[in-house]
Amino acid sequence: MRAWQVFEPGEPGDVLKLNDVEVPQPGPGQVLVRVKAAALNFPDVLLCRGQYQIRPPMPFTPGVELCGVVEGTGQRVIGTPVLPYGALADYAVMEEAELFAAPESLDDAAASGLLIAYQTGWFGLHRRANLKAGETLLVHAAAGGVGAAAVQLGKAAGATVIAVVGGPSKAEVARQLGADVVIDRREQDFIKVVKEVTGGRGADVIYDPVGGAAYAGSAKCVAFEGRILIVGFASGDVPAPALNHALVKNYSIVGLHWGLYRQHNPASIRDCHEVLTGLAAQGLISPLVSEKLPLEEAPSGLTKLGAGETTGRIVVTP
């Protein structure tokens, strides 16, 4: 079979090698899955760079999210493969206990992007930030995969959604996703706009997968009893918040590591999947697939993702 492999850390375009390798053999409790679509994620870029919290033995195949068919059963599933046998290949290995039925309402490409971004969004907004109908949600990087999921989930929850993006093309994507207010941070001061559209109150929940300047600005426009939800640091800048500021303004800084739910409360992951499947069936959520690439072009997709040049999800379709 064909598989992209990393033999040394570096930028995806430099270190990924497409090789013919043996089809992997699943171990106890594992299954072999024929990959139908693999959604690219920022962790795939970090894996190539050797900067992710998980460092599989080399050579390994990246690709942390897929939609595929279980060999021998024909079951259509989504989930996260077991590294080093990731999704950027013709076949991947998955834990049988962590298979999720692919929603019938989504095609392979869209289904491949449902698990990580939407589970992260749902747990962040509902379990950690307790978003309520009628509140105002501010989403940074709202045209990206993680941000787009948060916009759709915020609207499904009955919130007023303010989307912050970088550039006019991304602004149009945010509008298509259903954001009530769209701010191009390159042309507008998002702090000023948030205060204007909320009558000076600020945003009740702020969804931040960026860090850096995005976090610093969020602290200036979060509402009384607001919650800043820390999802990631795509900017590469991990902020050091002034806790006295949180004290005097009476807001919360809330962290989310979705993977911990898989360790501490795996039943909640399945419950969330049922909720998301229902929302997808109602047409309230659907991963935005901006580009489909053949397996041979996976490195170019990861390069664009790492440079912040993507909207929605890039999906590789072996």
Radius of gyration in whole Å, from Cα?
Answer: 19 Å
Order of helix and strand elements from N to C terminus: EHEEHEEEEHHEHEHEHEHEHEHHEHE
Principal-axes shape call? globular
Count every helix, treating DSSP H or I runs of 4 or more residues as helices: 12
End-to-end C-alpha gap: 11 Å
CATH homologous superfamily label of the largest domain: Medium-chain alcohol dehydrogenases, catalytic domain
At the first level of CATH, what is the class of the largest domain? Alpha Beta
Number of domains: 2
In round numbers, the mean pLDDT is 96
Describe the sheet with the most strands: 7 strands, mixed
Counting DSSP E segments of at least 2 residues, the number of strands comes to: 15
Task: Name the beta content range.
Answer: 15-25%
Q: In the CATH hierarchy, what is the architecture of the largest domain at level 2?
A: Alpha-Beta Complex
Classify the secondary structure makeup into a structural class: alpha/beta
CATH fold topology of the largest domain: Quinone Oxidoreductase, Chain A, domain 1
Low-confidence stretches: none
The helix content, as a percent range, equals 25-40%
